[in-house]
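For this section, I looked closely at a protein sequence along with its fold in token form, which I now present.
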Amino acid sequence: MKRHSIKMIGLDLDGTLLNSEKRISEYTRSVLNHAIEKGVIVLPSTGRPVTGLPKEIIDFPGIRYAVTSNGARVVDLKENGKSVYECGVPVEKVKGVMKILSKYDTMREVYYKGHGYAAGEKIDEVERYMSNPVMKEYILATRIRVDDLDAYVEEHMESVDKVHILFADPEKEKMKAAREIEEMYPELNVTSALDNNLEINEAGANKGLALIELGRLLGIEREEIMACGDGLNDRAMIEEVGFGVAMENAMEEVKKVADYITVSNDEDGVAKAIEKFVLD
């Protein structure tokens, strides 16, 4: 595609736009500003819920929209997080998935209307499921505690944006649980962004389709959308948009479907790809 035709850039956060310290470097910040000044729509496209977006993203001048929960919810940040697109998992499927997961040693979360919910007892022992100190603090700072997650889902929710699972023993249980969920609900999207997690979305909810839908609302064609990512939950996005960029630190399955492979998230890979394909 022609470089000048790119009008929207969707960016995964963890492992892509954010470096290992979960920050945006000054160099990357300046490149994003340059793209925005050119009229390009730049937005996060993440598995996180709305309330999990970093403050520096929410406050970033010129960033208005966000694709969250792997594409299940697209929000307008300048309109108090108003949803412009939704694709949730029906509660009956959520209950079935939760029942399957009850056999495994997991920290289960549900993302509902942009918020993350988890059982208080699991939040209290989050270190069993997340060793990264930055990510532990992120979970502790953003999750809403409930006494009984299963009961809360049944009583309060009609559908959820995403079910997120962290495994205490991923080598033993993660793929077994994934296969069991896929066999019971082959229509659901079962992906992963970390070595020890699974992410469950409704069929039709992925970052790529969400970017395309937002583009449609804004008068932007699929071929005019670029996206950058690194995890399995980015694979559909890399495939769906007009120009897909994988990070050097991306999973091999993601690299295989990318149009271009940039350098790693700790080497400003997003900024260098934008410079090469948007700003040059």
